Amino acid sequence: MNAYVKVLLRGSSLLAALLALRLTVFGSVDDAQSFALQAAEPYVKEGFQVREDYWGGDLGAGEKKAVRQQLFKGNEYWFWMGTEVERAKISVHIYDSEGKLAEQPDGWEKGHFAAAHIIPKSTGSYFIIVNIEESPEERTHWALVYGFR
Amino acid sequence: MNPFARYLKLSAVAVSGLTLCAQGAQAPQHIDIKQLSKKVEDVVVPLPNEVFGALNKLGSVNWKEYVRSNKGSNFTERPRIALLLGTVIADGFIAVQAEDAPTVKEIGQRVLALSKGIGVGNSITPHAKAIIEAADKRKWENVRQELDRTQNSVQQAMNEVHDEKLSQLVSLGGWLRGTEVLTAVVTKRFSTDGAELLHQPDLLAYFQMRLQAMPEFDLAIIREIQGALVEVKPLIDVGNAHISPESVKKINEITTRLDYGIVTRD
Q1: Model confidence over A16-67: pLDDT tens digits?
Q2: What 3-state class would DSSP assign to A19?
């Protein structure tokens, strides 16, 4: 192997290591959003329009956050949550304005992905509760995207 | 138990285990919303096509009636440009509903010109191009997606330079135009389900709160919108009651008046 190739290989390995480090140490809400969008991907084929706008932040293990959203009767919605912390366990659930669970039973949680589904019975505000149930990190980035059809 | 039956039983246990993993813990059937009030994030303002989609399910709408290709006035005040931009993006969604390619293309150009007017033209150029290309090919789903991306990019670019207030005005402009068209459609063919789509009190309160935090934008149109939202609030904040045909008509008059103020020079 000539010196040029060696330098190139070392450089690439360093770059890969730095990228991995960025994901684990400097992971951001943008990374979490990528995972939330990944969870949404299969639903686009089913006709769901996924919004570009999203919510995000960071939470400690066991912490919850509520997101308020206007939903319209007649539409069907999925909310997808993601985090870049692969060993985290997360969940998302939907409640109506009176605090009653309003989601369909086919929501799911798979490690660092989670999703909740709602066909609103009335037009109005709903609360989407995101939860970092378990995480090896002190703070865990999360992002929530939604789609409708 | 024979080995095959045991294998089946084990598989069933494994599959149900996986399902349980995927389902996760059961969510409580009821939560105390008041306890969460300090932890509530801002709303994401729905796009006009979210409401239009729900309207379409109530019966066919002749969207061509609501298409507007009037370019509107040219403004120099950035808050006015931001409001107009939101309105024009909403017009884009209406033109998509009507599958009106020439209007969509004009709107693409107009969005670009307005974005340049508030200094975020660079981030919008690729989207405007994509809107025009998709309209040429009549790929309406792509146009919808690009309009959403356009609004998002405009707002992100504004937020990056700490112009969040202008970004909120873009959303407000779109919401007002969307509400004007929603009320026009429902007024024409009233239904309680159609009127219920106006039940958006929290969104209205959100805009009121945002406008109150913009004292530096001392413009007649902003004051007019603030006053109008106070008028609209009791008409849509009706709790479990129905929104009446008179209320829908009144909201249409108010939003039509505001829209005229947004697109027209004083």
Answers
A1: 544 444 444 457 888 999 999 999 999 999 999 999 999 999 999 999 999 9
A2: helix
Token representation of residue A123: 């037009």
Cross-chain residue pair A123–B49, CB shorter than 8 Å: no
Distance of residue A61 Cα from the nearest chain B Cα, in angstroms: 15
Put simply, whether A114 touches B (Cβ < 8 Å) is yes
Fold of A28-148: Jelly Rolls (2.60.120)
Tokens of B99: 């599958």
Domain annotation covers residue B2: no
Residue A134 has φ and ψ, to the nearest 5°, of -145, 145
Instruction: Decide if B18 is inside a domain.
Output: no
Within a domain: B144: yes
Scan residues 168-187 of B and list those with Cβ closer than 8 Å to A.
none
B105/B109 Cα distance (integer angstroms): 7
**Cα(B266)–Cα(A100) distance, rounded to whole angstroms?**
48
Distance between CA atoms of residues B12 and B26, nearest Å: 21
Residue B144 contacts A where some CB pair is shorter than 8 Å:
yes
CB contact under 8 A, A68 and B43: yes
Q: What is the pLDDT of residue B4?
A: 42
Of B60, B56, B89, residue with least CA distance to B72: B89
Per the domain annotation, does B252 fall within a domain? Answer: yes
Q: In what order do the strands lie in the sheet with B40-41?
A: A89-96, A124-134, A64-71, B40-41
Task: Give chain B's domain count.
Answer: 1
Q: Which pLDDT score, from 0 to 100, does residue B159 have?
A: 86
Domain limits for position B223: 45-263
Contact B40 A70 (CB under 8 A): no
Domain boundaries of chain A, sorted by first residue: 28-148
Instruction: Indicate the DSSP class of residue B245.
Output: H
Do the chains contact at A49 and B193, CB–CB below 8 Å? no
Report d(CA B150, CA B205) in Å as an integer.
25
Does residue A112 belong to the interface with chain B, where contact is any CB pair within 8 Å?
Answer: no
Q: Report the complex ipTM.
A: 0.87
pLDDT digits (tens, 9 = 90+) for B67-113: 997 767 789 999 999 999 999 999 999 999 999 999 999 999 999 99
CB contact under 8 A, B31 and A55: no
As a whole number of angstroms, the distance between CA B88 and CA B108 comes to: 9
